[in-house]
Input
Amino acid sequence: MKRLLLIDGHSLLYRAFYALPPLGTRDGFPSNAVYGFLRMLIKLLKEYKPNYGAVAFDTPKPTFRHREFKEYKIKRPEMPDKLRPQIEVAKEIIRAMGIKTIEMEGFEADDIIGTISLKAEGEGLEVFIVSGDRDALQLASDRTKIIRTIKGISDIEIYDRNRVIQEYGVDPSKIPHLIALKGDQSDDIPGIPSIGMKRAQSLLNRYGDIDGIISRSDLKIIKENEEKLRLYLSIATIKRDAPIDIKIENLKILPPRKEILFGLLKRLEFHSFLKELGLTKEEIKIEERFPHTIIESEREIREALTKLSKAREIYINVMSTDHPPMWASIRGFCLASEERAFIFLTHRFSTFEILNNIHYILTSHIPKIGHDLKRNLVLIKREGFNIKNIDFDVSLASYLLDSTKSSHTIEALALSHLEKYLPEGNEIVRAAEEAGTCLSIRKELQEELEKEGLWTLFKEVELPLTNVLAEMEVEGIRLDERELSALEIEIEREIERIENEIFLTVGKRFNINSPKQLSEVLYDHLGLSPPGKRKKRSTDAQTLTELIRAGGPYKEVIEKILLYRGLMKLKSSYISNLPKLIHPKTRCIHTVFNQTITATGRLSSSDPNLQNIPIRSPIGKAIRKAFTVKKEENILISADYSQIELRILAHFSGEPRLLEAFERDIDIHARTAAEIFGVDEKNVTPEQRRIAKVINFGIIYGMSPHGLAQELGISRSEAESYIKRYFSRYPRVKEYIESLISETREKGYVKTILGRKRKIEGLNSRYKKLREQAERYAINTPMQGSAADIIKLAMVKLHSELKSFKMLLQIHDELLFEGPEDKLSDEVEKIKSIMTNAVRLSVPLKVSIKIGKNWGNMVNYP
Output
C-alpha cells in the first residue's frame, strides 16, 4: 500500500525550537528549530518510507476561526524572534528534500492536512500525519494514523482510530464535539462551564453529538450556551473541504536537489547532515554552467578585450579578500559578457597592468552590471582608476524589492532566483558562476522594479549613490592619534575613579563587567529586589534603569554602574580601537557605508561604525575632536537637516498647527509644550520643553504610553494624558497615523516620499506585542525612510555640483565635507541650496551649517 506523510510544519518547528538548546551559525543566524525539524524529517522518511509527502504551514493572516471567534488562540505567546527567521529556511530545506510545502490564506495547516488526508484515503493510500496538537486526533481512521510529538522531537506516540477511542472514550470524529464541551486551553476555547472531560464523554456517548445534546438534553447549562456550543464546535472542527486544488500524484516525493540542499546545509553549518544525506564534496558534483577563460598572456588580454568591447553589457567583479575594501588584497578581476567570463589574476599580471589594460572597457559607453558594485568601485578607485556607465546592481535591486530580507548576497540571490548553489573552493569557477548569476537575473529584477514602481528610485537615487559612497570611502577622514591618546588616559582615570566609588559604596571589590558577579552584588550582597513581574535577576541596561527609577539607597551606585559601562564601551569601540583602523597609506579612517542593510532605507556605517558616537555628550564631542582636516588650509563643513522627520510628519499629516510652526520657523518643541500644557510659548519651562520634545519624536517612532512613561520616568496614566492632549491639539496627526495603519494593514507595506516600500508583517497578529511592533514600524518608516530618501537625493546632487569640497561622512541627517577655507562661502551656499531644495515639501526644509578644523569643535556659520 502506498503511503502519504503529512506534517504540520509550524507544530514540529515549535517543538524543535523549545526542545533543543540554542544553536546558531558563526554569523549569528539561529538554527536549532531547523536542525531539530530536519533530524525528525530524516527519521520519518527512513522509518515510514512514504511515497508521497507534504508539509503544511499556517500563514500570518487571520483564518476564518479568528474572524468567527476573536479569542481564538489569543493567549498564545508570539513567535520567538529567533524562531521566526528559521521558518523560511526550513521551507527551503523541505523543498530541496523533494517534498512540497503548502500553505493557504484563511486556513490553518490542520485544514490543509485534513483536506488532503481525506482525499488520499479515498484513493486508497495509507496516511501518516505528524503533529503535536491534540486537535489532529480527529483525523485518525482505519487508514490514517497520527504521529503525535509528546515531548521534544524524539518522544512520539502513534494513534489510530482504536487508540483514540480507548484513550478519549469517543470516536475520533467526535473529538471536536468533546473540545466544544470541555474546552481547549491551548486554543483558548473556554468550553461550557461545569463540563469537564468525563461529563463531556458521558453526554456524547448518550446523545451522539452536539446536535443530539442540544435537541434531546434538558440540561439548563446547555440551553444557556447553545449558540456558544455551536461556535466552539465550528472552531474545533478541522476543515476537510478546504479549496485546495492539488492532486495526490503531485505530492510524490522527488529525489533531493542535492546542489541546493548542499548549499543550504553548508550555510547553516549542519556538517553532520552532509554525509548522512550523501552530500560530501566527493559525492556531489557541481556542474560548471558559465564558461570562462583564464587570461594567461598579453595576446589573450587583447582577444578578451576585443570580445568584451562588442558586448551589450559587461559584468564586473574585483576578486579580493574579505577585508573592508580599503584594506582588502586584490586577487583578480572578472569581466564577463553574456557569453563568457574572462578572469585576470594578479599572480600572473600586476594589479596596475590589468587595470591599465582594461580601463578603456571600464570607462566605455557599454553598460556595467554587478553585485555590490560599491565595493568594486572602492577597490578600483583606490588604485587610481574608475568605472563609468554603471547600469545595474543586483544587490541594490534585491534590497529595494524587499528591504526586510536578511540577506542580499549573491548566494542568496542565486538560490532564490535560479535555485542553484554557488560552488566553493575553486575561486575561478566561483567568479564565473557569480557572473552568470548576475547576468541571468538582471532582467527579472529590473522587471520587478518597474512593476513595483521602484525603477526611478533605483536609477536616480540608489544606483548613482553607489559612486558617491565609494568616493567618500576612498577619501576617508583624518584622525589625530595624539588627541585620542590623551583622551584615553583621561578616560582610564575617570573609569578608575568611578570603579573605586562603586567598590567603596557596596563595600567590596568585584568584576563590574561580569553579569554574574554584578547580579550577586546587587541582589544578594545589597539585597535589592529584581524589578518587574518576572523578578529576573538581570543586569541589563533596562533592568538597571528600572532599579534607578524605583529609588532607594543604592540609586546613585547603579547610576555609576551604567556610567562605567558607557565609558568602557566608548573606550573599547572608539578611543582604543580607532587608531588601529588608521590606514597606513592614507593616515585616514575609511568607514564602510552600508546601502542594503536597514529596512527603512537609511545608510549605516561599519568598520568602524561612526553613527553610534554620542552627539551631545562631552565624551562624544571629545572623540569627534580627533577627526580633523587633512591640510592646514582646509576646513570642515557640517550640514545637518533640522528636525527633518517632524517636518515630514507635518507634510504627510497636513496638520495646520505643525505647518504653521515650521513655516514661521517657530521652536516646534516649545510650540508643542505650549499646546500640551496650555501655557504661552514664552512661559514654557525647560522641563516642559523636554517632555514635549520626547513626545514629538515619540509620536514619529510610534511610542506607546508605556514607552513614553519609561522614557520620561512618569506614570503610565500621566503618559496617556500627555499623548491624549497631543492628539487633541494635533488631530490631523492622529487621523494620519490611523489611516496609515489601516492602509498598511490592507496593503502589507508602507511607502516613503520617493516610493520606497517596506513590507510590514504582524499588523493582523493576534499577539499584542507583535501587533504593536508592526504599528511602530508602519508609523516610523514613512518618516525615517523619507528622510533617508531626501538626504540620499541631496548627496547625489551635491556630488555632481560641488567643485572644491568633498563629502566625507553621512551620519543620520548630517553630512560632513572638507575643502579649502578660501572656497567656503561659495560652497556653503551651494550645499544649503541643494539640501533645502532636494524635495519640495509643504513646509520648508531647514539645514544647520557649522564649520571647524575638527568635527568636535564646530561653530555656527555664518
Observations:
- The radius of gyration is 32 Å.
- The chain is about 50% helix and 15% strand.
